[in-house]
Design goal:
With 213 residues, the protein is an all-alpha fold. It is built from 10 helices and no strands. It has helices spanning 4-15, 22-36, 46-58, 66-75, 87-101, 106-118, 131-141, 149-162, 168-184, 192-212. α3 packs across α7 and α4 crosses α6 (106-118). The two termini are 33 Å apart.
């Protein structure tokens, strides 16, 4: 992959090509860059966004609305504060604020917000019109769980860095509870592609981490 910053900015330019508000687009990009460069972000940064875009590129032929998926990838973690319980709602609200400035179609914005808020519990609303796109997007977001063992280990260490303000006993208890909830799911992933290629590895990775907590 090319330079991560250039790669993500290229995606931004492609997504916002419909608008000729160049000055506003540059201002919005600067805020996006600022937020994903916050010092407390060790995993939820532009590298994570670039990883999701790379997965999106690989599955583009199966995505019916690339604009919704593309914007949702970019904005889904734009607000990330480990003290807050409402990062998803705040991220969706900021996405709406940004994209209204570019006069993006209101229905597209509402779908982007739905995608972002769905990352809270990783479930597709029943009867949702873009359920296939949303399922893929949610699987992109947690694909790291099904990575090779060393990559997963590096990910889990970065997550710990993001929660350094919590002492070990509190962090480990919370992390273990969260991981066990994932393991209790009938399926971790939503789409057949990810279930077939990553489900078994993800469960092995998570069980290994739980055993070490």
């Amino acid at each position: 992959m090319e330079n991560i910053l250039d790669y993500v900015k290229t995606k931004w330019k492609q997504l916002t090509a419909f608008s000729n508000k160049e000055e506003i687009k540059e201002q919005l990009w600067e805020e996006i860059l600022y937020r994903y460069s916050e010092r407390h972000r060790h995993y939820h940064n532009l590298s994570h966004i670039a990883f999701l875009y790379s997965l999106c590129d690989q599955h583009l032929d199966r995505i019916s609305n690339p604009a919704v998926t593309g914007f949702a990838i970019l904005y889904h973690d734009i607000v990330y504060d480990t003290y807050r319980p409402d990062n998803e709602e705040q991220s969706a609200a900021l996405a709406e604020s940004h994209l209204k400035q570019l006069n993006l179609n209101g229905r597209i914005i509402e779908n982007i917000k739905t995608f972002i808020i769905a990352t809270r519990d990783h479930k597709v609303p029943q009867g949702y019109s873009l359920k296939n796109d949303l399922g893929l997007f949610l699987d992109f977001d947690i694909a790291i769980l099904g990575a090779e063992a060393e990559t997963y280990k590096a990910y889990s260490e970065k997550i710990r860095q993001e929660y350094l303000k919590y002492p070990d006993n509190i962090y480990k208890a919370g992390r273990k509870q969260a991981l066990q909830k994932v393991l209790e799911s009938e399926k971790i992933f939503i789409t057949d592609d990810f279930i077939g290629t990553m489900e078994e590895t993800a469960r092995r990775n998570i069980n290994t981490e739980v055993g070490q907590l």
